[in-house]
Queue: 4 jobs
Job 1
Amino acid sequence: MSSPPPPPHFVFVSVFLFIFFLHHSVTTTIASSSSQTLNTNTESFINPKLPPRTLSSSKKFEGSSNLVHLRYHMGPVLSSSPINLYLVWYGLWNKPQKQLIKGFLLSLSPSTPPTPSPSVSDWWRTISLYTDQTGANVSRKVLIAGEYSDLKHSHGTQLTRLDIQQVIATAVKSAPFPVDHRNGVYLVLSSQDVVVQDFCRAVCGFHYFTFPSMVGYTIPYAWIGNSAKQCPEVCAYPFAIPGYMAGGGPGALLPPNRDIGVDGMISVIAHELAELATNPLVNAWYAGEDPTAPTEIGDLCEGLYGTGGGGGYIGQVMRDRGGRTYNLNGRWGKRFLVQWIWSPALQACAGPNALD
């Protein structure tokens, strides 16, 4: 096998990525040294200070001198409507896990009646503000257009980055899973028993585009792994924290859907979809001069989930009566905890659960 291409953009694991610009870019309520709560009749708001992620000390701070210089590089965005998502379930997934992930993805589009605010659709509205050189916005309509289950791990349980494209190629050869080179986006979702190159050590997910020699067309795709058994303290943070840090803070937060791996995975899926939509061919919206290691709209706000974030605080998020933490409402009563995204209108990190 030939050497893989220059490394695609990937999700770094530092929780402090936004600290350097947050106080200059976002009007926030600065958290006190103890957890802040505001009790209401049905739920509370909490802004806990959590220990740093386990790999934060070795994190290369991407584009720290370019954080306020997010620029458009004349490439396309995902403006064709609808955005067709094709899901490749690689490995063993149970039905509730699939339904939870699909519930989040289906919540990205506006619904009738509207989902209560703050909603996943409200969150995607920020991504839809990005345009291409013709002025066309990222589409607000996102559909699940197809699914393929690779139950037998057709390429094994240990994958390289380039193997992800081979997984996609196997899926599209299995009719009726199409090669949708106009509106299509492929999401490869690997189960908790699958080891992927750099997973846990340096990445929780990444996005890139397929090579015509492998799939037939250049199509945006993303890979995200379920970290439940391998590194939940890294890729499912803040629902899990390293054991040696457990005595230094309030402890891990309770996931909104009682599945640490999948609940953590959903925020990574959101991160990658936001960046894939605004920089699908790695030549549209990013900061820095190196397109092989761009700082994108998710990177600018990684670790920030609400107002008052910074200095180790994740920001004001909601907590239900069962103690489960969330900041967005989805369809069918589902709730999710998803990081904020850089807004081109505000020139700051933004989320629909903002309190100011």
Job 2
Amino acid sequence: MVVVEWVTPEDEYVCTLSRETQEVAKQELREDKNSRDQALRQIREWIKLNPRIENCRLDSQFLLKFLRCKKYSVPMAQEAIERYLLLRQVYHPAFNNLDIIDPVLEDLLALGYLFAVPGRDRKGRRVIVARPGVFDPYKYNNADMCRIHAITYEALMEDEESQVRGFVHFADGAGVSFPHLTLFTPKEAVRIVKNGERTIPMRHKEINAINIHSSVKFALDFGMSLISEKIKKRVNIYTSLNDASNKKMDTSILPKEYGGTMPMKEMIDLWRKELVALRPTLLSHDKMRVRLEMFSEKAREGAVSALKQGFGCAAVGSGDSIQGITGSFRKLEVD
């Protein structure tokens, strides 16, 4: 019998949620001690007996983010975990080596392309700032873009309060032009958005955007067509920061440059410290693996049809080539 050394072992869950957040978890997610303990036990047994999963984290903090995102539907959480592990592996240029001391990630963070502001908004949520216009599409590629998103989201999801309270997104579209839109083909964009919404265990509570130029409105319309109705209702598009402020969007927690009090550079420096502290955890994720040959070719490619049909395993003949999502990335050189 082969003894698996899991990325992290089982642990005894100790609740770190504030009383207020525990109440939110109970009301919105149906979470209490009994449901939590029972679901964790079921998920762990399922992982250990699942022939498709080769290695995974078994600690409560990791598993609860899937259970909370799926409101304690164990089957849905199981599906999300399996899909998450598979996509991390086949999308490996974009999800592995999430190391903040990597020069590319350092550069993108310093530019303020994507970062989380310190503290929380009035509803206890972390706020993520995106500035896609500062991303140089001639210097960086689509995997670089995915990696900075992956390290940001993975780090944020390690926090229990955020797993329950969810996230607010703020995007400034200034500087976005047609070259940015050519980083991904329409097919890649569809697969990334559809898989991301179904797989990344984040509770997206609010999405605000400003400065969307009319020349890229078609891309915005296309993106809106890909997301679920639930998320679509949480999207607010403003013509400018003044327009957003006039329509009562809370700017107090944003960088000083967008109406807050703390300069953006200070926020970025604080966020970098958070990423450095989580560096061992994020790098340990590269040890998680599934057995690719036990998934259908469509599932390995991240095809939307595989999402619609469910995410079970399918027999794959030895003659099948594993193209996977990795093959859809252009301009990648993987050492």
Job 3
Amino acid sequence: MKALVYEGPGRREWKEVPVPEITAPTDAIVRVDAVTICGTDLHILKGDVPAVEPGRILGHEAVGTVTEVGPAVGGLTAGDRVLVSCISACGRCRYCRTARYGQCLGGGGWILGHRVDGTQAEYLRVPFADTSTHHLPGGVSDESALMLADILPTSYEVGVLNGGVSPGDTVVVVGAGPIGLAAIGTARLFSPSTVVAVDLAQSRLDAAKRFGADVTIGAHADPAARVAELTGGLGADVAIEAVGVPETFELCTRLVRPGGRVANVGVHGAPATLHLEDLWIRDVTITTGLVDTYSTPTLLKMVTAGRLDAAPFITHRFGLHDMEKAYETFSRAAETGALKVVLTRE
């Protein structure tokens, strides 16, 4: 089969690799029907995630069809159509027992495309298959379901819920890429008074408007001054960091009001300065987090019922064997206008 293989910082290759096999009784083999590329994959390719070793198949989001299950798998059978979660869960450890699946101690957590081979392939092995996949109803398309593998639960849990977004809040989302847009869309579920998007690319600010941002702030504006103007000088109730660079994290700490909350969602590959000399007296809460995907069943219900539209995230479509072209398009998002690219089996 073919797969996208990480060959070290700055290097990747779509090449022939062995078809995966069942290695543990809780495994399943899934034929990949739809897959996407995440900003985290770009961080890996830049060398920001040193735990990913050369030779690893990348990717942690997929929709597919079960082809084989291990003897301990009880909830799946060959032919089932499933969403493969970006987080794997052993289902037994202390963290899994409290729905903190991202911190799984039993061999799960974020492992696909990280510590074990991932989803950007024709087939993949899914560890802990019963607790790491979701059956898909017939009325939900592969493309819409794919947005529930990572970006929607990540933005909702790590951004909106960790940030404690409440009715009437002013919410500022720094970074209007796919994660930021998902944060804008899911923040609106809690009826904030104003949602502000900050980004350097006009195409992404235009997308932020479509996803529900009330105000956009671009490259030539002063975000702190504009947010102060919108809030009577107070600052944002919640600032969501959705980029993963020091400058955007530090900007969020300047935009938030005393008593407000900064929710960091971005994947950081370099240290950021925490200005405690300014923050200690302002009662600011800062949260970080890896998605746990405990919200996926809820979000799937909303998509199924038509209460949450996942389709607008998708801007570009490719065949599975156009993986290199899809990466080129996604990695130049400021030029191409790419939000999420979807690759499907021909």
Job 4
Amino acid sequence: MGPHPAVAAIRLAVRRVLHDILNDHGLPQQAEAALPPGPPPRPGGETPLSPPLVLVACSGGADSMALASALAFEAPKLGVRAGGVTVDHGLQPGSDLRAAEVCLRLRELGLDPVESTAVTVGREGGPEAAARDARYAALDTAAERHGAAAVLLGHTRDDQAETVLLGLARGSGIRSLSGMAAVSGAGGRYRRPFLELDRQTARKACMVQSLPVWDDPHNADPAYTRSRLRHEGLPALEKALGKGVVEALARTAQLSRDDADALDAWAGQAEATVRDAAGLLECAKLYALPPAVRRRILRRAAIEAGAPAGSLFARHIEEVDRLITGWRGQGAINLPGKVVAQRQGGRLVIRQG
């Protein structure tokens, strides 16, 4: 008798991602068990490849515990070492003890290396964004220190639907509606195997495997926007529109991502055609481009000049765009990161102010 359907689903999702990681890094796939770490040199001095390491980011919640269990099961079959990292945000009393408990559970699954890393959460962008920035910085550091080929994240289809709605509420454009990518980060470091699985599948997989999980009280705290959306907004939508809202939003994310990727590629090709010999953007040539392409070029130019991508919103780019499409002699536009955009002699100059 095979595993429970929920367990089979999470294992299949992780197996596919591990295959992708090995293929992307040009690494061989082991048919049965993993090679022992640190193999001795072959005769003649040639050293065989060490098994690649894949880390799972685990909070102790159902999604990430299900992911950790599936990674622990599948990795040895493909010759992959599996480790885990938990991030202690320090936002709740006893968070250090909770992190230590998560590490113990990961080791019991057979993961190695396993570590807890404490971070200091700032205030920039709000509590949720600040915690996210601190978490990813810690995961980047851990991955680089261990030489990990990838870090797995437990975001589910439900998380994707929430992300799409949050982007829609911000009015941030099609890239924001595309939600979370299955592969992201420098060199494709971050992988999200569960984006096509719902949250309930992960929780069920933990239950049938008797895996203890921790429910973060912040996930039910109405002070957080995502929590209100999860417990009030999405249920209200499903009540008004019927079941299938989460699936439809996740599908919208993928379609939006495809469109955004195509427009980004178009903008990348068009950018060279709208710069003069000195590399300055020519307003007349920018004006001739479709707005979606032109605004991507403007956003890229602002980021290259030093504007932080996370602080550069659609309203900023719209103001810069008016220097192209609604020129009435207006002055310079101040952008985040002390970047200034202004029109000079038919050219658009974006630089540090």
